[in-house]
Design goal:
The complex is a heterodimer of chains A (234) and B (340). Chain A contains 7 helices and 12 strands. Chain A has 234 residues and is α/β, with parallel strands linked by helices. In chain A, helix 4 runs parallel beside helix 6. The model of chain A has no long low-confidence stretch (mean pLDDT 93).
């Protein structure tokens, strides 16, 4: 068995033919959602199932993950915290603001926050960033995975308020929550056009790739603010 | 400019330099409640790019920047817990109750069938089903325990069933008792729903009935959401598969979803159901909106609905000829192939 580093805080554990994605466990000996813990040379790793995490799938799709060990991350659509827990592993010296709207899933998320020192839970609607503008500071990365029809607009609103000028937006677009009928490829094209042109902040898409076979009808993308915003920004 | 942060109201002068800090009390619970109750609007939100950490130290709220994460984390967790504690609304109680009811229905049918098979070995002539069977078995066990004054005594004495004794009898009685109790719980939930629905949604309860009303709230995800739905949505809630098939391919649109269980629709002849479903859905929408905003019972709703149904009945007395369905099926498969 050996461990290879893929990106800051993200590893693959290689055992013979099998490769598994993992992060270094920030809170050793605790498994968050039933994932396996693996020990190697004194460090404990938590296996990361890309089928349950769009960020995980993006790593396997060879995205460059712009998250460093001291990054500040705004995570929109935190759900029960499966992926958030791995983000928390990746940024031992940073902090993640986890926004989730459903009280039901927030119940699970809070139990995770209780155990980890670097997650700040926010029960709010990601469509209304002004509702948490008094809590969240400027961040290095926004990761967004919300199943809403206006995903692009939500990304723009949040980037405008919270994203550092040279920060990154990581977005998982779920075609089926935008339209159940139209061909996903067409939806992706349209959403990218929106991100580039429709809002008061525009994005420059750096990389995009569909997340199959881990997630059907999902597009992962990494973008940064387009230079045209740099001068006339607010 | 003035704006609000989680630790206080701050003022910047014209050069963008911090000129005034109105700090909140540094008590974690107070800060959490403050966090939840603060109405941030565009006018008082912090400018984008503002450095919270430096400001918190500069204002004297924190000794050092290192303190920032730990304190904000603790306050946020308290705030989220406080918000969750407020979320046990009437809606949620109705939804959980009606879902529990549906779960019991599913489970109790399976268990009752098992009991009928099982007890059939010992007393096949019994002729009871459902709650009657379960409560009967849990009370008497072996048919030899049925007293002479019971109407089933004769049947029991001459039954072709096997003897039920010892461990078998104990086991089957315990099994039956559980089922009998489930039926009892089910009827308690029904009573509970009837009470809570007539008090919180009197109009919805009168137009849709308490159970259907509760199911609609459950499927919509809350009272407010149901009231905000257009009535065409109300008409097809619960018919998701049929609806998406209709939207994706050229399948016919569903006439009714869960509202099919309304006696007016269920008991109507098939060719009137679509029209009646539309009328009922319209009145359900009105009813839930009245409930949401005034909460007073408006009896004219039911009267109007009855009149409308009468008009539909009179206008469509006879069944129309059914058109051939094969055409529709063909075009669906074509369309799917094109998408593929």
């Amino acid at each position: 068995m050996r461990v290879a580093k893929m990106s800051s805080g993200i590893f693959t554990i290689i055992r013979g033919e099998t490769k598994q994605l993992a992060t270094k466990n920030l809170v050793p000996s605790i498994s968050v959602y039933g994932e396996k813990l693996v020990e190697f040379e004194g460090d404990e790793y938590r296996l990361w199932d890309a089928h349950r995490s769009k960020l995980g799938a993006m790593v396997l799709k060879k995205f460059e993950i712009p998250i460093a060990k001291d990054s500040r991350v705004l995570y929109l659509g935190a759900a029960s915290g499966t992926t958030v827990s791995h983000v928390s592993d990746i940024i031992p010296e940073g902090i993640v603001y986890a926004v989730e709207f459903s009280t039901r899933t927030m119940r699970d998320l809070i139990q995770l926050c209780d155990k980890r020192p670097n997650i700040i839970p926010i029960l709010a609607d990601a469509e209304k960033p002004h509702l948490y503008a008094h809590i969240v500071e400027t961040v290095d990365v926004i990761f967004q995975d919300v199943a809403q029809p206006n995903q692009a607009e939500i990304a723009a609103l949040n980037a405008k308020q919270f994203l550092k000028k040279d920060g990154f937006l990581m977005l998982a677009i779920k075609a089926r929550s935008i339209d159940t009928v139209v061909n996903p490829k067409k939806i992706f094209k349209e959403e990218i056009r929106k991100l580039e042109r429709d809002f008061s902040v525009g994005f420059e898409v750096l990389k995009m790739h569909e997340l199959t076979p881990y997630h059907e009808d999902h597009l992962g993308l990494v973008a940064k603010l387009h230079p045209r915003n740099q001068n006339n920004k607010i | 400019m003035n704006f609000i942060t989680w630790f206080g109201v701050l003022t910047l002068d014209d050069n963008g330099i911090l000129s005034k800090c109105d700090l909140f009390q540094k008590d974690r619970d107070e800060l959490a409640i403050q966090l939840v109750n603060t109405e941030v609007v565009n006018a008082n939100k912090p400018p984008s790019g503002f450095d919270f950490r430096s400001a918190a130290v500069e204002c004297g709220f924190l000794e050092s920047k290192e303190e920032y994460d730990a304190l904000l984390r603790d306050v946020s967790i308290r705030a989220a817990k406080y918000q969750i504690s407020l979320s046990g609304t009437t809606d949620m109680r109705i939804i959980q109750a009606v879902e529990a009811l549906d779960d019991i229905d599913g489970v109790v049918n399976t268990l009752s069938e098992r009991l009928a098979e099982w007890y059939g070995i010992y007393f096949p002539e019994l002729g009871l089903t459902g709650d009657l069977l379960a409560c009967f078995v849990s009370e008497y066990g072996s048919r030899s325990n049925i007293p002479p004054e019971n109407g089933l005594y004769e049947n029991a004495a001459t039954s072709m069933g096997a003897e039920l004794t010892g461990a078998d009898e104990k086991l089957i009685k315990a099994f039956a008792l559980n089922i009998c109790n489930l039926y009892e719980t089910r009827s308690k939930i029904e009573t509970y729903l009837a009470e809570i629905m007539t008090s919180t949604g009197p109009n919805l309860a009168s137009v849709a009935g308490t159970l259907l009303g509760a199911r609609l709230i459950s499927l919509a995800g809350g009272f407010e959401r149901l009231a905000y739905f257009p009535s065409s949505t109300v008409q097809v809630i619960g018919a998701n598969r049929a609806l998406f098939k209709h939207l994706r391919a050229r399948a016919p649109s569903p006439k009714h979803g869960i509202i099919y269980n309304h006696p007016l629709i269920k008991n109507a002849p098939w060719w009137q159901r679509g029209k009646i479903a539309r009328a009922v859905a319209a009145k359900i929408s009105l009813a839930s909106r009245i409930d949401l905003y005034s909460g007073k019972l408006d009896e004219s709703l039911e009267v109007e609905l009855a009149r409308k149904i009468e008009v539909i009945r009179l206008a469509n007395p006879n069944a129309p000829k059914k058109s051939k369905k094969t055409i529709g099926v063909k075009s669906i498969s074509k369309k799917i192939r094109r998408h593929g």
